[in-house]
């Protein structure tokens, strides 16, 4: 609509005025905020924007390829993909404590991003080098960083909207979304041409599958979990709830699979199996501070469970999490 077009035009002019002929760096995570910030800044200054996408190997199925396809492929933005999965897995080996895992993932993420930024900052022939760091900070982040924060919230913020990073890198800070609420960010994203499914995706934690694999993170576990999770999400997207006419995906606030590193016995054909377990989690919430487990139809759960067990060799049991928050949290770690 025209209000949104006006808003985009205004934001574009503001970014151009602020940045001039200088260059901007942005850390793309695949999340809504950094994606919309990237699309907006790209609209404003095109080639003067360079995005760095750190793939920590703990993303969802095909997520890294989808991000690259969208930004590099369709928007023709400059995106550098850093595949750091081996580094993350190496550093996470043997670590089981959830907060320790969060710290390691957060620290490595910053390290890898900083190293890439330092390389890019160095002036190249015909360019002054990068002078700005763009972040997808939105209005609720601005408020939150003023007030009291939970331990988790601190980690969340230190992960994506990294405090102090611009200073450490000697870059000026560009935050084009800082006056917007989440809903407005989503509308802006759609108006900028980002796909609806990307912009209305459920939240995904910065540490990714790192906190959805209980205990030690292993590549084998991540690979199994990615496939189970993708089946769950696919069925939620394709199953329409008849009264609202909406897919179940849109009726829950967050849904995902969790990998449990325990083995249980099963039968398959003539044989006995001894394989891993996944738990499905789907919640409804307005603020993520409290949440109810979603009353998904049994028929949907049945289809998801049978698909996971049949299609993902290595998983022979699926459970559904019927715990609300509090006292349980949404994530299992
Ligand atoms: P919990 O598990 O605390 O989750 O009920 C509340 C919301 O926060 C998300 N979450 C995180 N997001 N880094 C993030 O970026 C984290 O370490 C983290 N831990 C939880 C969770 O997915 C849910 O939406």
UniProtKB/TrEMBL annotation:
Reactions the enzyme catalyzes: XMP + L-glutamine + ATP + H2O = GMP + L-glutamate + AMP + diphosphate + 2 H(+)
Pathway the protein acts in: Purine metabolism; GMP biosynthesis; GMP from XMP (L-Gln route): step 1/1
Gene Ontology cellular component list: cytosol
Superkingdom per UniProt: Bacteria
UniProt KW ATP-binding keyword: yes
Record-given protein name: GMP synthase [glutamine-hydrolyzing]
UniProt binding sites for ATP: 29-35
GO MF annotation list: ATP binding; GMP synthase activity
Subunit text: Homodimer.
Residues of the whole record sequence present: 206 to 538 of 538
Gene expressing this chain: guaA
Keyword ATP-binding: yes
Keywords noted in UniProt: ATP-binding, Glutamine amidotransferase, GMP biosynthesis, Ligase, Nucleotide-binding, Purine biosynthesis
EC number annotated for this UniProt entry: 6.3.5.2
Described function: Catalyzes the synthesis of GMP from XMP.
Residues in GMPS ATP-PPase domain copies: 2-201
Record organism: Tepidimonas ignava
């Amino acid at each position: 609509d025209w209000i949104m077009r006006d808003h985009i035009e205004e934001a574009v002019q503001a970014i151009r005025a602020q940045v001039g002929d200088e260059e901007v760096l942005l850390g793309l995570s695949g999340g809504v905020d950094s994606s919309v910030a990237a699309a907006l800044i790209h609209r404003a200054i095109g080639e003067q924007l360079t995005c760095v996408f750190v793939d920590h190997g703990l993303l969802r199925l095909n997520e890294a390829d989808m991000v690259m396809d969208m930004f590099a492929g369709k928007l023709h933005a400059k995106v550098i993909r850093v595949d750091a999965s081996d580094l993350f897995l190496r550093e996470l080996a043997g670590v089981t404590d959830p907060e320790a895992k969060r710290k390691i993932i957060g620290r490595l993420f910053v390290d890898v991003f900083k190293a890439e930024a330092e390389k890019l900052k160095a002036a190249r022939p015909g360019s002054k080098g990068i002078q700005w760091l763009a972040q997808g900070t939105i209005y609720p982040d601005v408020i939150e960083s003023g007030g009291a924060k939970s331990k988790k919230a601190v980690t969340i913020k230190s992960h994506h909207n990294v405090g102090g990073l611009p200073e450490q890198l000697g870059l000026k800070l560009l935050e084009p979304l800082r006056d917007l609420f989440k809903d407005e960010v989503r509308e802006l994203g759609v108006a900028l041409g980002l796909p609806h499914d990307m912009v209305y995706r459920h939240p995904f934690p910065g540490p990714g599958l790192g906190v959805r694999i209980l205990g030690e993170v292993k590549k084998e576990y991540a690979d199994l979990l990615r496939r189970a999770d993708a089946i769950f999400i696919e069925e939620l997207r394709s199953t329409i709830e008849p009264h609202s006419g909406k897919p179940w995906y849109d009726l829950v606030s967050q849904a995902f699979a969790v990998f449990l590193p325990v083995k249980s016995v099963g039968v398959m054909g003539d044989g006995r199996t001894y394989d891993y377990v996944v738990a499905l989690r789907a919640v409804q919430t307005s603020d993520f501070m409290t949440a109810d487990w979603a009353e998904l139809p049994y028929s949907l759960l049945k289809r998801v469970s049978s698909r996971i067990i049949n299609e993902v060799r290595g998983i022979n049991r699926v459970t559904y999490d019927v715990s609300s928050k509090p006292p349980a949290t949404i994530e299992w770690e």
